[in-house]
Amino acid sequence: MTKQMLKDNLLAYALLFPSLAFLAIFTFYPIIKVLDWSFYESVMSVKRFVGVDLYQQVFQDEVFLKVLRNNLLLAAVTVPISILLAMYMAVWVNDKMRGTSLIRAAFFYPTLLPMIAIANIWLFIYTPDYGLLDKFLGCFGLEGQSWLGDPKWVLISMMVMLIWKEAGYFMIFYLAGLQALPKEVYEAAALDGAKPFQRFRKLTFPLVMPTTLFVLIIATTNSFKLVDHLYIMTKGGPNNASNLLLYHIYETAFSFWDMGNASVLTVILLVILLAFSIIYYGVLDKRIHY
Amino acid sequence: MHRIINRIGIICLGLLFMIPLLWTAVTSVTPAENMLTRINPFAVQNPTFANYLEAWSTIPFPVYYRNTLLIVGGILGVQLLTATMAAYAFARLRFLGQSAMFILFLVQVMIPPDILIFPNYSIMKELHLIDTKWAIMIPYWASSFGVFLLRQSYKQIPYELDESSRVDGCRWWQTLWHIYLPSTIPTYVAFALISISTHWSNFMWPLIVTDSVANRPLTVGIAIFAQSFETGAQWGVVTAATLLVISPLLIAFFFFQKQFVESFMHAGIK
Q1: High-pLDDT (> 90) share of chain A, %
Q2: In chain B, where are the structural domains located?
Q3: So where does this one cross the membrane (chain B) (predicted)?
Q4: Which of A151, B9, B57, B182 fits a 20 to 30 Å CA distance from A157?
Q5: Interface test with A, best of B105, B261, B262, B263 (most A CBs within 10 A)
């Protein structure tokens, strides 16, 4: 190793050190810690090693299974819809026409709002009879629903709200991705008389794949991360119909003070998030043509 | 033809997206007695600021604003420093274990501190930091997202500039200061806006680690306030309070919108 290389190595690690230190204390250490705790049952602050017993119990717990199903369903619906919507929006606000920046702002502002503020606003939109949605439906003589009180509707109501919040954020990444596309290819496609939808499917969609990979990871993580609204809107109810994994962790840890189960649930959430990332990288990375 | 149809579609979609904000604004100036009787929820009759006054006098806004500003500023300041350093290392230095380090940083993108509320709470307890603003800030002092964002834009700077400044006798931090920082300002603005809005919005973590008005941020304060209301007659006060919480974000976005969107469009994220 030359002197220069040694110097570069030292400098690099010195520069990485502050970030690494905080990552170690608040990301890596807690992950190891929570993994360790998940094998202990604690009653009255006495810890007892129980192996994988808690995991077995959790996977037989109906509340957990319901929460897990809710969360997976929420991700399966909101992630693809908000990504497709974001692509559509990006393609059509990617110009310098008058008013375009205003439309872009309309799509983007929900991203900036705290989930708590969004919950306050949408709670009133979904209020039965007097809420904005029921009033709007009333104009067409349609019957409103108990959007947040009915187990059939509550998760769907949450999905609509989340798509509204997220789509504009992903749009920004696609706007960035679209800038990098080669203009000549599009000119050639226009000469060949490609229809707009064909052009999107055959050109734009594959070409923005790297952006999609990045957005998929953020979107999936967010569908497990965004739970603040539950605190205001439903507390996970009715009967856990809108409960999500992270909120369930919050309840288990800070309402029931069940350390063992809170650890198990956290580990499960970590595994889910890691699994999604690995699948996305593994499957999509190979199909991306740089 | 399809152009016009899609343009109209996009405009309608934009209006649809605006509705919740417009409705909130209108509701916040509607007098309580008109709240449920009004037929058109977007018409403003007898506009009043009474809701704002009531919200301001019931919620200790000055304390909450100060707390949120301190927290948001405290996080951003440290993040800029740590992310700049790490981004420079990743963008311009070659070192052993570079890809392993990269993956370690990537872990935080996949598993953000928000997910680790439970173990991090007990770490804060061990550090005796419960119910302090430090507890809210410290877990976010490293930002892998910031590192990747800055690294990407550092990489666009021609390497020759870097070398020539070295030949001129600049040390690495001088190069960083005189060449890298000035040419990546839009990225810094974008990152700052994202960081500020993220931490202005953060709720669950501050809810868990704080327990007093003196340390609570706006989001926790307003959530506790909103919980005490059930009836439609109070909509005005709650929407007014909500607007008081979000207006700084909306104003900041309004001013920096162009820079924000463009910085993303130029930097490109891959």
Answers
A1: 42
A2: 1-48, 52-267
A3: 7-26, 69-90, 102-122, 134-154, 175-196, 235-256
A4: B9
A5: B261
pLDDT in tens, A33-70: 999 999 988 766 777 888 888 898 889 999 999 999 99
Residue B83 confidence (pLDDT) = 95
What does pTM read for this prediction?
A: 0.89
DSSP string, A76-111: HHHHHHHHHHHHHHHHHS-S--TTHHHHHHHHHHHH
Out of A11, A168, A246, closest to residue B172 by CB: A11
From A8, A112, A180, residue closest to B268, measured CB to CB: A180
CATH node for A71-287: 1.10.3720.10
Size of interface A-B (CB pairs under 8 A): 261
Residue spans of the domains in chain A: they are 71-287
- Using an 8 Å Cβ cutoff, are A150 and A171 in contact? no
Alpha-carbon span B90 to B230, nearest angstrom: 52
B52-267 to CATH, choices 1.10.3720.10, 1.25.40.80, 3.90.1150.10, 2.130.10.10: 1.10.3720.10
Check if B214 contacts A (Cβ < 8 Å).
no
Average pLDDT of the segment spanning A128-154:
82
ipTM value for the complex = 0.87
> Which amino acid is residue B22, in one-letter code?
L
Given a cut of 50, the residues of chain B with pLDDT beneath it are: 268-270
Distance CA B157, CA B161 (A): 8
